[in-house]
Design a protein that fits this description.
Length: 175
């Protein structure tokens, strides 16, 4: 595959910041007594960091790591758990914090294993959604932006471990 690099800003940094604050307000409205957030590493780490700083009230955190894309830009359809949670979920109001829902395979796998741990509620916040790519129907309660079927990087999302540090979301193209 040709080397890819960011070629076009799709969502500027200030638009992301505004939208993340809106999502945080929505989560707080729905869970005024507090939430337990679970970020899916590594892609969601920046979204998590901004979301948590916008959230009022009681917030606890945990992290889980799964891998679905080996390298490249297409899904392998296989999900592996790389790092499990540190804390139990019994009776907690849990929000999964994900970077992007594409085919839906990763999120539906995660929801299945986390539901089995008896949270009181289990919802999902995704910064980005690519609905045209969905193979598995999976509800997402808090969506930042709907994007077309283009491979994006930045704000935590990588291409071959690069570009996570961009403050905006960019589309990649041939270098
Ligand atoms: P799904 O299982 O929904 O197909 O894929 C979810 C995961 O694939 C995301 O958490 C993300 O890591 C990766 N992914 C899907 N689309 C993109 C994309 O456009 N850019 C990047 N960097 N990762 C993506």
């Amino acid at each position: 595959m040709a080397d890819l690099r960011p070629v076009e800003v799709l969502i500027p940094a200030d638009a992301i910041q505004r939208r993340v604050a809106e999502l945080a307000a929505g989560i707080h409205r729905d869970f005024p007594d507090g939430v337990h957030l679970i970020a899916v590493l590594k892609g969601a780490f920046i979204f998590m960091a901004d979301l948590v700083r916008s959230l009022e009230g009681k917030v606890s955190l945990d992290f889980i790591a799964v891998s679905s894309y080996a390298k490249g830009t297409t899904s392998s359809g296989e999900v592996r758990m790389l790092k499990d949670l540190d804390y139990a979920l019994d009776g907690k109001d849990v929000v999964i914090v994900e970077d992007i829902v594409d085919t839906g395979i990763t999120l539906s796998y995660l929801k299945e294993i986390l539901k089995a741990r008896n949270p009181r509620t289990l919802r999902t916040a995704c910064l980005l959604s690519k609905p045209s790519r969905r193979q598995v129907e999976v509800p997402v309660e808090y969506i930042g932006f709907t994007v077309e079927d283009r491979f994006v990087v930045g704000y935590g999302l990588d291409y071959a471990e690069q570009y996570r540090n961009l403050p905006h979301i960019a589309v990649v193209g041939p270098a």
